[in-house]
Each structure stands twice: as C-alpha cells, then as structure tokens.
Specification:
The complex is a heterodimer of chains A (802) and B (141).
Chain A lengths: L2 H22 L6 H4 L1 H11 L2 H4 L5 E8 L4 E7 L1 H24 L7 H20 L3 H19 L6 H32 L4 H6 L1 H4 L5 H15 L8 H4 L5 H10 L4 H13 L3 H24 L3 H24 L13 H32 L15 H15 L5 H15 L14 H25 L17 H37 L22 H18 L1 H4 L2 H4 L6 H23 L4 H22 L15 H19 L3 H21 L3 H22 L12 H27 L7 H12 L4 H9 L1 H31 L1
Antiparallel strand pairs in A: 1-2
Chain B lengths: L6 H24 L7 H18 L2 H7 L4 H21 L9 E6 L3 E6 H26 L2
Antiparallel strand pairs in B: 1-2
Helix pairs in contact in B: 1-2, 2-5, 4-5
Amino acid sequence: MSLLHLAIIAPLLYAILVPLFYKSFRQIHTGWFVLPLPIILFAYFFSYISTTRHQAIVMETLNWIPSMGINFTAKVDGLGLLFALLITGIGSLVILYSIYYLSKTKEKLNTFYTYLLLFMGAMLGVVLSDNLIVMYAFWELTSFSSFLLIGYWYQREKSRYGAQKSMIITVFGGLAMLGGIILLHLMTGSFSITEIIAQAHDIVNHSLFIPALLCVLLGAFTKSAQFPFHIWLPDAMEAPTPVSAYLHSATMVKAGIYLVARLTPVFAVDGLWVWLVAGFGIVTLFWGSFSAVKQTDLKSILAFSTVSQLGLIMSLLGVGAAALHFPGVEDNLYIVATTAAVFHLINHATFKGSLFMVAGIVDHETGTRDIRKLGGLMHFMPITFTIAIIGTFSMAGLPPFNGFLSKEMFFTGMLHVLELDLFNFQSVAILFPIIAWIASVFTFIYSMMLVFKTFTGKHQPEKLDKKPHEAPIGMLISPTILASLVIIIFFFSNSLLSENIIEPALAAIFPGLLTEGTGFMVHIDIWHGFKPELFMTLGVIAFGILLYLTYPKWRKIYKLFPDKLALNRLYDGILERAQNGSNRLTNSYMTGSIRSYLVYIFTFFIIILATSLFVKNAFKLDTSKVSSIGIYELLLALFIVIGAISTVFAKTRLASILLLGAVGYMVSLFYVLFRAPDLALTQLVIETVSVALFLVCFYHLPKLRKEDSRVRFKLMNALISVGVGIMVTLIALSAHSNKFFQSISQYYIENTYTEAAGKNMVNVILVDFRGFDTLFEITVLAIASLGIYGMIRLRLTRGDEE
Amino acid sequence: MRSNNNIILETTIKVVLFIIVLFSVYIFFAGHYYPGGGFIGGLMTSGAIVLLLIAYDIKTVATILPVNYRTMTGIGLLFAIGTSAGSLLFNVPFLTHAFGHIEVPVLGEISLHTATLFDLGVYLVVVGVTMTIIQTIGEDE
C-alpha cells in the first residue's frame, strides 16, 4: 500500500475516530478535529501538480482480486488531480463553514462528520481509481453517503423524501453504469481505464459498443442531474447547506462529468456519444435555467442553477469530444470547448460554493430562504451582500469575474458547432448557439433575482422569525476565500491555472491527440476583441435586464406548462405503482402460515429435481458396490419408520416432539454404525438441544386440532411429503451409482496431517481447509439469533405500550 | 420456563453439570486429533446449561450464570475473524493457520495451533447463539 492509497482512504479511516472525538470532547466542536485532514490532503495532492504539469502520470497498484483483473489501481493524472484538489479544497472550506453553521449542542455532529468523511473518501476513490470496478464501488458509496447526508434531519418528511429520491435515481444510474462496465470488460477483457482507452479503436464496431455507451451515459446523467433525471437535485436541498454546497454543487454531481470526461477517449469515436452528451447537456442547460427563474426558495434557485450549469459543462464536453476526429492540437477548433468545460468546472465550484454559503448565512441569520419574505438585507449584512454580488455576477457571466471568461469560451465552443460537418450535425447545429444564448439570458435573470430580491428592496421584518444581523466572522471566512478566488482567477487565470491545472487535465481527456513533444497550449484571454461572443454577452445583459424588470408581466408562461406532465409527478406515480404492485404480489403468496411456505418450498424442490433428473437422464442404479444390509441397520431403519409415522398420528404435541427426537437419535446411531463419530456426537447433542428448544416453545403452540374439514389439503400434503421422500431416495441412489470423478476424501487423508498438523479430518476441514464456510456459518448463526432476539423482544415491548 | 421442583433432578444436576461441562471442554481441545471440536463442544456446553434450565427456572440460572450470551456471540465472532485476519499481518492469505510444538516441563510436548483460537470462536458463537435463542423464547411468556 502506497502513500497515495493511504491518502485516498484516509477520510474513511479517519471517520472511525470521529465518534470518539465527539464523545470525549463535547466542549469542542467536532468539526475542528475533522478540519486538519482535508487540509493535509489538499497540501498532499497539491504537491502532485509539479508532476502532472509535465504530463507525467503516477500509478500505484494494490492487488485486490488479481485473478479477475480487479485491483485497487490509483492513478493521478491531470483530470483526477483537478477533482482531488476540488474535493479536498472545497471540503476544507465547507468543514470550516459547517463548524459555525451547525450548533454543537443541538446537532448530532458525530454522524454528520462521519458521513461527510465517508463521502470525501468515496469521492477521492472515484476520481483517482483506474480500475472501473473499484471506481464503481466508490461511486455507489458516494450515492450512499449523499443519501445519509440529505436525510441528516431525518425527522423531516421532506428530507426523507429527498434522500430516497436521490438514492433511487442515482443508484439506478449506477447499476446501469455497472452494466456498461461489464460490457466494456466483455469487449476488451480489462477493467483498467488506461487499457480500455488503448483499445478504443478496436471495439467501436463491436455489437456491444452502443449498449455499453448508453449504460455508461445513464450512470453519468443520473449522477450529474441531467434532464430528465435532474429532479432529484432540487429535493436534495433538504440537506444542511454545507452539504448542498459540497456534494450537490461542487463535487458529487460532477462525478458524472468526470466520468464523461474520463471515458471520452473510449466512446467519442462514435458520433452518438457527441450527439447525446452535447444534446442532453444543452437541453439541461436551458431547462435548468428556465426553471430556476420561477423558484422562490434561495436554495431551489441554486439547485436549478446547478442543474443548468452542469448541463453547460456537459454540452461543452460533448462538443469538445468532436476534437478527437481532427488531428493534432494546434488548429483543433473543438479543444476550446473542452478547455471551457474544465475551466468552468473550476469556476462553478468557486462561485456556486460561495453562493450556497451565502444562502446558508441568510437562512441562518433570518430564519427563512424565501425571497418573497426577504429584502433589504444589504444594510444588515454588508459582507454577505458583497460576496453574493461577486458570486451572482460571476454566474451571470459578467466581468471582472471568472464566470465571464468561461462563459465567453462557452459561446466560442457553441459557435464552433456551426462548422462541425460530422455526424449530420449541420441540420441542427444552429440550435446550439441559440439555445445557449437563451439559457444564458435566463441565467442572468435568476442571478439578478437571487441577489437583488434578497439584499435590496424593502426590508420586511414582520415576515422574518429573527432579527437579521451579519454572520459571525468564522462563517464568512470560507465564502470570502471562494469569492476572492472568483476575482483572482479572472485576472490571473493563465499564470495560475492554464499550465498547472487545465493543460494536464486536457492531456488526460485527450491522451491520443498528443504526439511526442507537443502539449496543449491554453491561453485564456480577457479581451477577445469585437467578436460574436462579446456581442452575445452584451445581448444577454441587455435582454436580461429587460426581462428581469418586466418579470411580473411574463411570469404567467410558467403556468402554461401543465402540472400533470411534470417529471416529479411521473416519478411519484411510478414509485407508488411499484410499491402497490409489489405489495399486492407479496401479499398474494406470503400468507403468514409456515405450512404454506413449506408447501411452496417442497413442491418447487420436487419439480426442479424431478425435471433435471428426467431431462438429464441421470437416474442410475448400480448395485455392484452396495454392501450387505446388517441386522442393526434393518432394526434402526424400522424404528425410524415407526417413529416418523407415529409422529404424524400423535394425539398431543408433547408426544410428537418426543417421537421426533427419538427419530433423530436413531439417525445418530446410524452415524455410529457408519463410523462417523464426529457426526454422531453432533447429531446427538443437536437432537438434545432442539428437543429442549421445542419444549421451550411448547407453551406457545396451539393445541393440536383435528382438521377433518380439509381432507384435500391433507391429501396434497401427503403427496408432497411422499414425493420429497422419493426424490431424496432416487438422488441418493443415483449419486452412489454415478462416479464421475475421484472422491476428494483421498486428498484430505493425505494432507490433513502434513498441511494442517491435525489428525481429526472432520475438524481440520471445519477450521482450516474450509474455514471460510465455518466463518460465514457462525456469522449467519449469530445474525439468526440476534434476529430471533429482536423479533421477540420488540414484540414484547410493543405489547407493554399497548 | 416454570420451576419443576424436582428434587432428584436438581440434586443430580449439581454433579452431572460439571462432568458435562468438563467433558465438553475436553472434547473441544481434543478436536484436532480425536472426535470433537468447537462446534460439538459448544453444543454440549449449551446442552448442560439447558439441563440446568430444565431443573431450575430461567431467573435462577441467570443468577448462577450471569452471562450476556449476545456479547458472547460477538466475542466469538471476533475470535474467529481476528484469527483469520491475523494472518494478513504476516503477509499470508486470509485464514492461513500456523502451528508449532513447545516443550512444557511437566506435561511434555504440547502442540500449539492457531486453529484452536479459531475453534474457540466457533465454540463461543455456538454457546452464545443456542443460549440466546433458548433464553429469548423461554422468557417470552
């Protein structure tokens, strides 16, 4: 295990300690103990920049299941590093912020930070694993930790609803992705992303290529809240605000983007990938920004805005993927789209992170997030207002903020679609810049609403629960850092980011485009000259202001869209149908009577075994190796038969329990006859204990009744039991008569003493040769006993309450 | 369970109990070379306790043997998993056992085997599980 592996799982390991910190130091906010870890990790990953900027890649492998090609291979390249820095960097700021946001006396901080660290470790695992199966495992872990964090205030019904929704949608996509991964493995024989990329051109005509592509995209789209799967993200806003800022804007929702970027070299060979990624992205961009305008809750606006920005990055990645179809990097028009995607990814994390924190501050200090109740907060919270201005103006794409730069590049990328003459893009190419422009107008509108409806206008103290005042200084540190970055990136984007972060990330997305000695040259211009992009931005500002001022007049268009067709209705409907349907199905056969279950099990048993015995023509009777039957065996068998039959006809339960016990003892005598002392001993003690158990239960069982009325039922039971007996006998006879391979007993006879230093073969098999079986058997036993304990104890306490 | 007030059984149990428990311990240790082992040993110990339960009632037995059988199950599982995972520390696959012999002054040569520790886990789990089930159902009036 290398230091890199340790760094990835460090949050998971550290999570174990969090409850201890919480229990032992109640006076100190648990967040202070957690904070150092992401900072150290950030510094650690920061040191990798010097490696990746020279296009070098660090790979460390830890064998996990080498026989199936599943190994924990950690890979640090430009793309993974960018995400790792985001995860640890934003993570540090969010934890610092949460220390002031979450009260140490009221909240259960131990669970909060445990979940948060769980998420951090999982997310690092996703972006730094080269093995798809390992990545998938971490991927699902991010879904689980997100579920736990959304449901953090589980007393609230909406939290539970949001948590369940996000879980169902993202895990649905995750499972589809697993299918895609397996299909990729079938085509290439490898789980390693690096190796799959190397084979990309060989698999493009494979019949499984398109299904794999669709499955992987389903995983990416659900995770990154792309239309129509975006509906879980607004409901996820029930999570505490630090979580929304961290998971649902800066990191987890970008896992889908990471996946698309990472697998672009594999799938972008096919035009379908470019179409789908760009198309879904641009639709999501529009729909998100359009829906954001009608929201009244600050966090809902931010949620839809995140959806829309994710769509923006996604569409850029889609258009950028076209670059793979043009040689070289010098005059490649489409690289600019991918550059914009990477750049905007960073910018979005900075401005949206700060805006979420602002929303949290407003909520914390006024008690509401409803912009209809808020207003005029500028005078009470001047610092928060400044941060909000910086964040929203950057989001709207105004200078001098970093959003302006990436927005301009976004327009450039979309305009290049016009020149794309691949995959029949010409027919609809004009739609891309148009939709992009319209969506940007809406982005401008909701950005302005976000800041001006909250901070300017008339102050309405009567509608607020608390008297508003500026947030404590600790709560302002993190958003201030992020807001400063928004401006710093605008002025120093080239010296800070281009060479260190963006170029290595591009090299990781397009490994095939680079030839020896070349590199991506990213240069971000603040001033392009009078080009179409600039006029588009000016148009956005002009129309945006106009529409913002006339919003009350045109807001009715939101009522045009019928509620019945809303995607949320569809989701709720499907969920309800599925629940009702499975309830009905389950109730139809789960009668609660153990007799019916035994009937199902044994009928199935007879049908399956009889069919396979018949179909495979497996029955065979070979009497040549049968030893003669002695008098003892005959007597024992006779007693067993008598005992078993009298059990059925016993008048009282006590008698049948004892008779059943007697049959068991006879069977153990058989083991003695066949010289199996271990089995005989075990069977004897088991019989004793189970007879005692029966006697203990005895008091609870109803008296035996004669059931004359249901003769047919009894007849069927008799048939089934006779059938089972016949089947077992036939199989025993055939098993004895067919010898397809050497018995394994010879191996044990030879190796028991030499390999395991034991003389009792049965015991050595139990504890050594087949120790795994024993280990899991005792685990199952323990679970079963706890289950019985829980069932009976729970019933007892419930009885007390009534 | 109800108290039976069976004086013969109660008197006999007092002696027989120790014989059964001792035998179950013997069977547990003998397991590696002769018939026996953790599974049978554990069952036999539970059998002895069950016998005690039949002679006296559950409350009396709980005061004689104040054992939390659920904890016992947990400790047993820890033994089994700990022994299995311990091999990882020596860079050998999970569940690799080690054995050796040592010379003890009075008893002569004694063989030591990590499988015994594993088997001890099995023993504890079996006793814990059986007694948890019987106790829970028995207490449920």
